[in-house]
Write a structure and sequence with these properties.
This protein has helices spanning 7-10, 24-29, 36-47, 55-62, 69-73, 80-93, 100-108, 112-127, 161-165, 167-179, 196-201, 204-217, 229-236, 238-242, 245-252, 257-262, 284-290, 294-300, 323-326, 328-345, 355-362, 371-380, 396-402, and strands at residues 154-157, 184-186, 224-226, 254-256, 274-281, 304-308, 349-352, 368-369. With 407 residues, the chain is α/β, with parallel strands linked by helices. Strands 2-1-3-4 form a four-stranded parallel beta sheet. It has a four-stranded parallel beta sheet with strand order 6-5-7-8, with helices on both faces. α21 links the parallel β7 (349-352) and β8 (368-369). The radius of gyration is 21 Å and the shape is globular. The protein starts with 6 loop residues before the first helix and ends in a 5-residue tail after the last helix.
Length: 407
C-alpha cells in the first residue's frame, strides 16, 4: 500500500531509540510497536516492502497520541507528525480507519448551530446528573452570551467545541487582551472549526476545506490569536496543509495568545498576584509543535503567587484531541503518570492552555484552569477558587492522597 510518504522523509529515522523515553504510549506499554521508531518501521514495511496493513499494524498506528514529543528529542530531525498524518490520511482514504460514525461526529464540528444545540442538550443532562464527572466536562451553559467585537487590532479564533463548552475562557482571554489595550474581534461562526481533529483522524480534504474557509474569513494582516494549543498548532501549519503562498502568509499571522502577550507584557497593568500555587501543564502542541510553552510562564508569573514545574519533562497527559475518547484505556494509563507528577508538585490548581488537556485531567479530579482565566481574575480583583460545583472536584492535594495509582 502506498502511504504517500516521501522517501527522504521516511529515511530520516535512523532507529536510534532516543525518542523512546519521550513517547507516552511506549512508556506505559513497553511495546516497540507503540513507539515512534516502531511505527516508522511499520510504515517502511508497508510502503516499501509491500507488507499488508493487518489489524496489529493498524492498531499500532491508531494507538499514537500524535503528541510529537519524539520530534523534540530526535537528533535526526524526523518529521514524525507529518509521517503520521500522511499515514492516517492514506488509511482513511482507503476506509481502513475513521469509520462513518467518527466522520459524522467530526462533521458536526463544522456546523456551529448543530453543535450548540447538541451542547444545550448535554448541558440539560448535566443539570440532572446524567453526565459522569469522569468525563471532565466543565459546567456547560444552557445559554451563552455572545462575544462582542471591541476592535480589530487582533482576531481571536473561537473555534468549535471550545466556543460551545468554554466560551468563558474566550471571554477571559478577550478581557486580558483589552486590558493590554488591544481591540479584539472574535471570529465566531465565520471560522467554525480549524480542522485540527480532522487532520489527526486522517480526514485531509475536510481539513483543507476548513483551512481555506478560515483564510477567507480573516483577511488583512492583523495578528490572529488562538487560546487553544491544538488549534493554534493546526492553524500555524496551514502553509504545509494547503501548500500555497496565501496559506503560508496566513499561518505567519497566527500566534498562541500567551506567545503574543509575552511580547506585550509591559502593556498589562500591575496588580496583586493571586494567592495560589499553580503548576503549569504544557499541552503537547504548545511544547512540541509550536514550541512556545515558556510564554505561559512568562505571562502567568506576575499574576500568581507561586509557579511550580512538573517533574515529567512535559510528557503527554493522554488527551490527544479525540484520542481519550477513542483509546480510553491507554489514555487513562498515560494520564495516571501525569496525575502522579501533579500530585508530587502539590499545587492548588493546574494551568493548561488546551481545552482537551484540561477536561482530560479534570476527569481524574484534578482542578484545571486556563492561564488566561487566572490572569483575568487577578486583573479584575475577583480572585480565583479551584473548581468544585457539580463535578465535585477535589483540590490537587486531595488528589495526591486519593487518586494517584500505586505502581
Amino acid at each position: 500500500m502506498d502511504l504517500h510518504i516521501p522517501a527522504d522523509e521516511l529515511s530520516r529515522c535512523v532507529q536510534c531509540g532516543l525518542c523512546l523515553p519521550h513517547c507516552p504510549t511506549f512508556r506505559v506499554s513497553g511495546d516497540e510497536s507503540q513507539s515512534p521508531r516502531g511505527r516508522i518501521a511499520l510504515m517502511r514495511a508497508v510502503q516499501d516492502g509491500g507488507a499488508p496493513v493487518t489489524g496489529e499494524v493498524r492498531a499500532a498506528w491508531e494507538s499514537c497520541v500524535q503528541c510529537r514529543g519524539c520530534e523534540t528529542a530526535c537528533p535526526s530531525g524526523v518529521h514524525y507528525g507529518l509521517l503520521m498524518e500522511l499515514t492516517r490520511e492514506s488509511l482513511a482514504d482507503a476506509r481502513i480507519v475513521t469509520p462513518r460514525w467518527q466522520r459524522a461526529g467530526f462533521t458536526v464540528l463544522r456546523r456551529p448551530r448543530v453543535l450548540r444545540a447538541a451542547s444545550r442538550v448535554l448541558a440539560a443532562a448535566q443539570r440532572v446528573g446524567l453526565v459522569p464527572a469522569r468525563l471532565g466536562l466543565p459546567r456547560l451553559p444552557l445559554r451563552a452570551q455572545p462575544l462582542r467585537t471591541s476592535g480589530y487590532d487582533v482576531h481571536l479564533v473561537t473555534g468549535c467545541v471550545m466556543d460551545a463548552w468554554q466560551r468563558d475562557v474566550h471571554r477571559d482571554t478577550q478581557q486580558v487582551l483589552e486590558a493590554a489595550g488591544f481591540g479584539v474581534h472574535p471570529t465566531g461562526d465565520a471560522v467554525p472549526c480549524c480542522g485540527a481533529l480532522h487532520v489527526h483522524a486522517g480526514l485531509g480534504d475536510p481539513a483543507r476545506a476548513m483551512a481555506s474557509q478560515a483564510i477567507a474569513a480573516i483577511p488583512g494582516d492583523a495578528p490572529i490569536l488562538v487560546d487553544s494549543a491544538g488549534c493554534g498548532a493546526a492553524m500555524k501549519d496551514y502553509g504545509n496543509l494547503l501548500g500555497t503562498e496565501e496559506a503560508r502568509r496566513f499561518a505567519a499571522r497566527v500566534h498562541d495568545v500567551g506567545e503574543w502577550l509575552a511580547g506585550h507584557l509591559d502593556r498589562l497593568p500591575d496588580v496583586d498576584p493571586l494567592a495560589l500555587r499553580v503548576a503549569v501543564q504544557d499541552p503537547c502542541h504548545l511544547r512540541h509543535v509550536q514550541r512556545v510553552h515558556h510564554s505561559t510562564r512568562t505571562v502567568l508569573a506576575p499574576y500568581v503567587r507561586d509557579l511550580v514545574e512538573l517533574d515529567d519533562e512535559g510528557l503527554c497527559c493522554g488527551a490527544g484531541g479525540a484520542y481519550s475518547l477513542l483509546q480510553p484505556a491507554i489514555a487513562g494509563r498515560i494520564r495516571d503518570r501525569k496525575v502522579s507528577s501533579i500530585a508530587r508538585a502539590t499545587p492548588d490548581v493546574v494551568a493548561s492552555a488546551n481545552p482537551g488537556c484540561a477536561m482530560h485531567l479534570a476527569g481524574a479530579g484534578v482542578p484545571t484552569v486556563h492561564p488566561m482565566t487566572l490572569i483575568a481574575r487577578a486583573l479584575d480583583g475577583r480572585g480565583y477558587k479551584p473548581p468544585g460545583g457539580i463535578q465535585g472536584r477535589r483540590s490537587c492535594h486531595q488528589v495526591s492522597r486519593v487518586d494517584v495509582p500505586r505502581r
